[in-house]
Amino acid sequence: MNRKTLVLPAVIGLLAPVLAACGGSDSGSDGGSSIVVGTTDRFTASKDAPAPLDPAYAYDVGSWNILRQTVQTLMIQPKGEGDPVPEAAQSCGFTDSGNERYACKLRDGLKFANGDAITAEDVKFSIDRARAIKADSGVFALLSTIDTVETQGDNEVIFHLKTADATFPFKLSTPVAGIVNPDDYEKDKLRDGFDVDGSGPYTLQAEVKNDELVDAVFTKNPDYKGTLQVNNEKISMRSFEDADAMGAALEKGDINVMTRTMSPKQIDKLTNATDGDIDVVETAGLEIRYLGFDTDAPSVKSKAVRQAMAQIINRSELVAKVYGSQAEPLYSMVPASITGHSNAFFNKYGDPNVTKAKAMLSAANVTTPVKLTLHYTTDHYGPATKQEFEVLQKQLNDTGLFDVGIEGTPWDTFRPAEQKGEYDVYGMGWFPDFPDADNYLAPFLDKDNTIGSPYVNSEIRNTLIPDSRREADRLAASADLTDIQDIVADDVPVLPLWQGKQYVAARDDVTGTAYALNSSSTLQLWELGRGVSG
Fold first, then answer.
1. Which helix (H) or strand (E) holds 428?
2. For the purposes of burial, counting CB atoms within 10 Å of the CB of 329, is it exposed (0-12), middle (13-18) or buried (19 or more)?
3. Would you indicate the residue range of the signal peptide (predicted)?
4. I need a labelling partner for 435 at 20 to 30 A (CA). Which of 20, 130, 275, 339 fits?
């Protein structure tokens, strides 16, 4: 068949709940051969990150995409987007008017893949464990509003929150809240390596070479009970060194599907082709890219330096030269399609202006040119990252106000170094834990933030974030969210660059690709099949 592009509609806020897909795990395909999915995500166990797949540690989109197939959560984001719905739970909800007491009842007959029954105590163990370990990835901060976890009988769990948190149901849908078996996971220690045991739609068999996961085989879990319809018996997810190798494997038929991360050139080629047997699906994406700053580092400690960079960087040129129609400029950490978004950086700085940037630096008595190194990862966000940083380097250096070098590092070295504060300026991406403005602000600005930033704004932490979380109607939280974005645009602890679309390419005998990725870049392997309506 001809190659084609299927464009799905963008997410417009979170105002209307959407029903989850009905059916259970007893539906599915005819049990044909394994569907092979390619990815450029790399999964490495190292001294700095020995437990890449422990729910209490994992906090990147690749690892979460493995956990979402294997470890069940009380809540889940539905197939059609919208508010989360019960998954391991049969029902969940706030039981008070102040959004501070949240209760869940478990489904009957839940079992771990080894046959052990799941009880409310297992849920409490799992969530208390992540909170107590406090892994340096910072993922535990998603559970920071929990005060205590209580159980009543074998099937009821009650969360008492420190403060109102209307986003809490979303947080219970993330892998850090995944239910694990106390027999397999120690209470106060991370589980090293690539073993994962849970009650999700699949079990995992990991093929590991030189401490790196090269092939993850997901086999349908016959004991799974939840909302998901599993349309296949087995999925193999294969990790490739780069996008070119992954693309060649798809062309040869060695893999059936490729996901993140394709290169812009690959996407253009596949989208514009007029023959062949590969289809491309384009979906709205909530991925963003940004620069992070160690605001205590001498080179960028002056707010004027960070403001000058915000005044100089030309997002439109950056996107046009590197990503074309596959991305768009972003003027806030909150993407344009999320309720509460404002163009705070454009409102403050307008179009790029070297004269204004020079005046900012001069008023703050900053000696120019300011010498900086921009750090980026070579193998985590796709092959265009180097070119992106070359464009940024040129934009800054051409002003004469900066003397910028760039340095690329593999992710397994880059991420620990960034967390330890070894980089003054660094490029990062963010794939939301859940599609709400809070998740584009609190992870970077709150206590125990995910990038280890020393930046503190007491108004944001003590007033604006807590106040925004009290509003169950997220549109009503917009005033507080806008205030946060305005403060960020003025202080520039982070500098948003662009938001991107996302793509899946598949051979045309594979179905369900339109839902293989949701807007938060969650890989939904259960949607894939052969001869199953997607």
1. strand 425-430
2. buried
3. 1-20
4. 130
